[in-house]
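Hi R.,

Here's the input for the 6-O-phosphono-beta-D-fructofuranose complex you asked about:
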Amino acid sequence: MKSIGLLCSGGDSPGMNCAIRAVVRTAINEGLEVYGIQRGYAGLLEGNIKKLDVSSVGNIIQHGGTILQTSRCPEFKEAEIRKEAAHILKRKKIDALVVIGGDGSFNGAYKLHSEHGIPVAGIPGTIDNDISGTDYSIGFDTAVQTAIDAVDKIRDTASSHERTFIVEVMGRKSPAIALHVGVCTGAENVVLPSEKVNIDEIAADVQRGVKRGKNSSIIIVAEGEKEGLSHEIRENLKSNYSIDSHVCILGHIQRGGNPSGVDRFIASGMGYLAIKNLMKGENSFVTAYRNGNVVAVPFTECLEKKTEYLPQYINLVKTLSI
Ligand code: F6P
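And here is the predicted structure with 6-O-phosphono-beta-D-fructofuranose in place:
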C-alpha cells in the first residue's frame, strides 16, 4: 500500500477534523501519500481529490465541521455508481480508502470493498451516536454539550417567566441526544423519535411540577420524521389542557462548534488506528469504541442503525424531575 484516500460523508460532526489530522499525520509517518477527497462520495465521483501534506491539517484540531467538507450522496446506493467510484480510485492510484461517517456512509464503503476489493477503514462520525457495533461516534459529546448549554439558558428565562418550553433536539431516528440532554438538564419529559407522543403524560408531568411549586418545565423532543412535531405538541397542550408553551428548535447549532476533549481524544485515536491497521494488511474494519478503548472490528458489525434505547434513562428523567 502506497497511498490512501480520505473522505467524510453524511452529516458533519465536531471532531471530524481531529480524525482527519490523525489519519493524515499517521499515514505520512508511515511513508504513505494521502489524498483528501472533498465533499464525500459526491466529490469522489467528480474526481475532487487533492494531495494532503503535514501542514494541510495544521491548526484544525480545535475546529468543528470538516476541512474536507461532506455531502449526502444517495446515488452511491447504486452498484453502477460504486463501480465508477472504484475506477476513479484505481485511476488515481489510491490503494485504500478511509471513510469518516455514519451507518449509511459505512454501507457504501463496505460495498466498495466487497464488490471491488478496495481496502476500507471506517471511522464512526455522527452526532447521533447511532451506529451499531460501536459505543461511541465522534461528535456526540460536543453536540450533547451544545444542547445542554442551550437548554440551561432556556431554563433561565423559563423560570423567570414561569413558562413551559418544548425544546427540539436533533436525532431524526436516534434517541441518544434527546435522552442525554433530558437527563442532564432535568427535563420534565422526553419525547423520543418514532415513539407515540403521549400528550396526557406530558401534560401530567407539567401539571405535577406546577402543583409542587416549580416555576418552569422543559420538554425535550427528538426531531421526528415529519417536521413540526414540537408545534403539534404545543397546540395539543393548549387545546386539551390549556397549557401555554413555547417551542425552541435547536437544529444545526448542534452539529457545529469546537470539539470537546472527549471528541478530540477519541477521534485522534480512531484516525491513528485506522492507518496502523491498514498498514498491517487489514482491509475491512471500523475503528469502534468499546469498553473505553478504540478497537478495530469487522465492518459487518457496524452497518446497521442503532435506534434502541435503554428504558432506564426515561425512568431516570422521570424519577429525578418529580
Ligand atoms: O448527522 C445526523 C443528523 O444531524 C441528524 O441528527 C439529523 O436528523 C440529520 O442529520 C439532519 O440532516 P441534514 O443536515 O442533512 O438535514
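One thing worth noting: The pocket of 6-O-phosphono-beta-D-fructofuranose is lined by residues 10-11, 72, 126-128, 170-172, 223, 255 (CB under 6 Å).

Cheers,
M.
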